[in-house]
Amino acid sequence: xxxxxxxxxxxxxxxxxxxxxxxxxxxxxxxxxxxxxxxxxxxxxxxxxxxxxxxxxxxxxxxxxxxxxxxxxxxxxxxxxxxxxxxxxxxxxxxxxxxxxxxxxxxxxxxxxxxxxxxxxxxxxxxxxxxxxxxxxxxxxxxxxxxxxxxxxxxxxxxxxxxxxxxxxxxxxxxxxxxxxxxxxxxxxxxxxxxxxxxxxxxxxxxxxxxxxxxxxxxxxxxxxxxxxxxxxxxxxxxxxxxxxxxxxxxxxxxxxxxxxxxxxxxxxxxxxxxxxxxxxxxxxxxxxxxxxxxxxxxxxxxxxxxxxxxxxxxxxxxxxxxxxxxxxxxxxxxxxxxxxxxxxxxxxxxxxxxxxxxxxxxxxxxxxxxxxxxxxxxxxxxxxxxxxxxxxxx
Length: 395
What we know:
The structure is a single chain. The chain is α/β, with parallel strands linked by helices. It has 18 helices and 13 strands. Helix 1 (17-33) packs across helix 17 (371-386). The longest helix has 24 residues, at 66-89. The relative contact order is 0.12.
């Protein structure tokens, strides 16, 4: 089936934790399709554990925020230039860039120009804002692997080869999440209405959202004092930022249980999730949890978003549904009154809650495509297309 002599060589760049999970699953599946294959580039611990040799630490590419980007920009450019030299000197049979588009697309463009096939895994949000980037993607990518079905439609419309592979999260989260079991795991009461609070995982998000979330808790308690809230934090730093806001607003006696990590368990145990827009909204959707979504950015960032955005919906569940399935409140609309009223409506309007849950279930099923296998098969077919003689020789 594959070459018996020289092993297949696959270049790979993973730049963050979520991409490392995708990379590990992809490499594992590719090894079942290609008996003799080597991977090299940049990988996190999970992808390395599957056999990818990393030339630089993945953390070098994990840049979040403008200040951090400015501080690391020169070093990141240096790494990309070194990788270009590495892959041009010893060309891989194919290169796969996983997410981090600002880094990978530039690398992919150089490699594609040199005749090395390139695949990009996880579409940039070009469909949502800065649509002019599609021309650059066309020059950089031979095939796009898309996580979401509407992305496939978008790339086909722009004549870029694309494969919709689904989202691995839809397979990793159980189809029916047992709320009672997760409450028992977290030592939470079964007979209380529980609202999960996820104001964000980054420090900048906690700074912007903490007071908003605590004021929303106060608004809700004024309407129903039997509510219980639970807030997970990714680390001690983010918890500290949240508690500064608690102290500022003198909210020490609010029924808010704080836990370290376990954000997915917290959402699974809750009746409703109040959260900042981001990856967690997709997790909540796959778990079929009712949710209210919000997000606030700086004034300057909001002006840029308005200038370059071409979507009316911001959260992923709503983009997947094609309409505002779950309430979302951004910028000036992000008030305790709006968020609280939306939570109350979901708690009291059983027909609406049931309708949302049913549609979230359909979204979950749509994303459950066995993404790791489907992505690996797309890479394998790309290799067969590019190197038919090699496959014939080894048949």
